Amino acid sequence: MSFPAPLEFSTAPWRLSGVVYGTLLNHQAALEALGEAVNAAPYKGAPRAPVLYIKPRNTRNVNGGSVPVPADVEALEVAASLGIVIGQAACRVAAADALNHIAGYTIVADISIPHTAVYRPSIRLRARDGFCPIGPSIVPRAAVADPDRLRVQTFIDGVLQHDSHTGERIRPVAQLLADVTEFMTLLPGDVLLLGSAAGAPRAGAGQRSRIEIEGLGALENHFVKEGNKA
User: Fold this and answer.
1) In this structure, how many other beta carbons lie within 10 angstroms of the beta carbon of residue 143?
2) pLDDT tens profile 190-208
3) CB atoms closer than 10 angstroms to residue 211
4) Are 179 and 165 in contact (CB under 8 A)?
């Protein structure tokens, strides 16, 4: 399989800023999995706006990088997501114009310590060092015909564990970008995650993950005990 020529991470205006915004409950099945709990406190109903959280700079990791597994955790959740790389400042953009603000797309492994609560996403569980591998490259927006129809596969130790696609989203790419920029400005180099599909697999120390998104290549990482470098 051949892939489009990628944009280098270091080439302006696609230089990544280090700001990554995650999105929760954007997959219909993930929202439905909450069941009646979505109507109880503290949620009191399905979210009316995107549920966001930040993956700060310390979480940044690379293709081929090691992901540290805390000593008291058996395995980490490996949530595959399409990364939307902003190419020009986006503030209160209309859905019809949203794609014009995108430089390209990449693969993101949104790593977290497994948990069930999604209300006020926990920094302690999602923002550990190395918990946000990004790569292997940025594929130009023009090379991706439809970002809402891409197959997403996650392999653990070479075995397919999760097979989904970027569809079935409550907010597809353009609408998500429009809704987020209604209340905040996204700047060139920022990365907005479309959000993962329900049922993300897990990986523990000594295992390897490989995330493939159609047309974007593959992002590979290995998991090590916290404190180890290899």
Assistant:
1) 15
2) 999 999 998 899 999 999 9
3) 26
4) no
DSSP string of 154-215? EEETTEEEEEEES-SBSS-HHHHHHHHTTTS-B-TT-EEE--PPSS--EE-TT-EEEEEETT
Diameter of the chain by CA atoms?
49
What is the phi-psi region of residue 139: left when phi exceeds 0, alpha when psi lies from -120 to 50, beta otherwise? beta
pTM here?
0.89
- Identify residue 55 by its one-letter amino acid code: K
Structure tokens at 66: 């090691």
Q: Which domains, ranges and CATH numbers included, belong to the chain? A: 20-225 (3.90.850.10)
Phi, psi of 59 (to 5 degrees): -85, -15
Chain segment 54-71, per-residue pLDDT in tens? 999 999 999 999 999 999
Asked if pLDDT for residue 45 goes beyond 80, the answer is: no
| Measured distance CA(144)–CA(228) in Å, rounded | 38
How far apart CA 44 and CA 135 sit, in angstroms, is 37
pLDDT-based confidence at residue 5 (cuts at 50, 70, 90)? very low
CB atoms within 10 A of CB 184: 12
> For the purposes of burial, counting CB atoms within 10 Å of the CB of 2, is it exposed (0-12), middle (13-18) or buried (19 or more)?
exposed
